[in-house]
Design a protein that fits this description.
438 residues; alpha/beta; Aspartate Aminotransferase, domain 2; Aspartate Aminotransferase, domain 1; 2 domains; seven-stranded mixed β-sheet; four-stranded antiparallel β-sheet; 18 helices; globular; binds pyridoxal-5'-phosphate
Length: 438
């Protein structure tokens, strides 16, 4: 028993369990998996080495693991309606890198993805990431209203001639028009990679359109709205196979021997479990409620005077632009954490502030919806968010870089001892106690 053999680690896990129970976990990329997913993760499947693919392994003793991996592939294939799936990428970043190495070697190709500061992901060609260091990339931005400007994206694609156009984002609150992206990719002869990490659960539930008819490749992490273990799926669509029948093989070899050794078989089993869960009518209702909650929360926040990027939410997330309120995103996120509401600071389109002190906060409803919260709770949460932000309006962050650093430290201390924020946290604790974790 861990409790006896290593009380230190045991205690840390218990502390984290308590934290997850008592707060409103509103980081849109997080979720609470089922007990069954965790059960599959903590099994002897962890002990096996199974480099290669089902029935083509480099190690003996893989008959059972083959069944596990084929089951996960089969379930993903059915759920997302794609002919080919690779379930081995260890997490999201490798999953996209595998696609790039499969398609762009010998390091000549170009990626076109949404800029990080407009809601794109690091792995979509940002210069700080290997995707932008090893490959050429060009980044698009959003229009003035904070939504995708397809005419501009098309112009840029025609000019830059990327080999891969990446769509699917980390901080985009509106529906993604995959059909339009597909048309642009076809026009310039590029592959369309739809990275639906954030919205895979919504697609599975049928509350966001699927990119499968329009994209050549679809990637997703399995631990966000899909509510599975940390992990990833790389899928090739019929359209992708038509463009290049070798795509599945290229992706398989990009994963191993290209980027990885042995897959995490316990993780693969947990992915299989989550995919079964995601194909039920209960999950469909869950997806619908995520969106209803996000829309209700967006509506309430707007009514309270907050400025939302993109004007609202069609999915699971909301991006609040705090510029003009006098509260920096970093300060706002700290205040909310003290109040028991866990969100992340985030850049907003055309942000004048640096990434460490961005002007916005990003929040979402996947995890609190898993706990069973509904519209009624969203109204209360919006009010708490408003009160917490109001409370820290008096803590100003200077513009000067050095002065800001010092001031931020002071503000941190003030937030920590702020009684009104602590009072909200007590109320949050009372509410969350009525919504048990899975
Ligand atoms: C989360 C995310 C990833 C990366 O996933 P990690 O598991 O954190 O590496 C990739 N793309 C998008 C769009 C994401 O939201």
């Amino acid at each position: 028993m861990l409790k006896k053999s290593d009380p230190k680690v045991f205690d840390l896990i218990k502390q984290e369990e308590k934290r997850q129970k008592e707060v409103l976990e509103m980081i849109p990329s997080e979720n609470y998996t089922s007990k069954e997913v965790l059960e599959a993760l903590g099994t002897v499947l962890n002990n096996k080495y199974s480099e290669g693919y089902p029935k083509k392994r480099y190690y003996q003793g893989n008959a059972v693991v083959d069944e596990v991996e084929m089951l996960a592939e089969e379930r993903a294939s059915k759920l997302f309606n794609v002919p080919y799936v690779n379930v081995q990428a260890l997490s999201g970043s490798v999953m996209n890198f595998a696609v790039y190495t499969a398609l762009l070697i010998p390091l000549k190709g170009k990626i076109m993805g949404l800029s990080l500061s407009f809601g794109g992901h690091l792995t979509h060609g940002q210069p700080q990431s290997a995707s932008g260091k090893f490959f050429k990339s060009t980044l698009y931005t959003l229009g003035k209203d904070g939504t995708l400007d397809f005419d501009e994206i098309e112009k840029q694609a025609l000019k830059e001639k990327p080999d891969i156009i990446v769509c699917g984002f980390t901080a985009y609150p509106r529906v993604i028009d995959f059909k339009r992206f597909g048309k642009i990719a076809d026009k310039v002869g590029a592959y369309l990679l739809a990275d639906v990490s954030h919205i895979a659960g919504l697609i599975a539930a049928g509350v966001h359109p699927s990119p499968v008819p329009y994209a050549h490749i679809v990637t997703t992490t399995t631990h966000k709205t899909l509510r599975g273990p940390r992990g990833a799926l790389i899928m090739v669509t019929e359209k992708g196979i038509k463009k290049d029948p070798e795509l599945p093989k290229k992706i398989d070899t990009a994963i191993i021997p290209g980027l990885q050794g042995g897959p995490h078989d316990n993780q693969t089993a947990a992915i299989a479990v989550c995919l079964k869960e995601a194909s039920t009518s209960t999950f469909k209702k869950y997806g619908e409620q995520i969106v209803k909650n996000s829309q209700k929360l967006a509506e309430e926040l707007t009514e309270l005077g907050f400025n939302l990027v993109g004007g609202g939410s069609d999915n699971h997330l909301i991006l609040i632009d705090l510029s003009g309120t006098g509260v920096n995103g970093a300060v706002g996120a700290l205040a909310l954490e003290k109040a028991g509401i866990v969100v992340n600071k985030n850049g907003v389109p055309n942000d004048k502030m640096p990434p460490f002190y961005p002007s916005g906060i990003r929040l979402g409803t996947p995890a609190i919806t898993t706990r069973g919260m509904k519209e009624k709770e969203m109204k209360v949460i919006a009010k708490w968010i408003y009160e917490a932000i109001e409370e820290v309006k008096k803590y100003e962050l200077p513009n000067d870089k050095e002065a800001r650093k010092v001031a931020f430290k002071e503000i941190k201390g003030k937030i920590n001892s702020n009684k009104n924020l602590a009072k909200i946290a007590t109320e949050v604790k009372k509410m969350t106690s009525k919504f048990p974790l899975p």
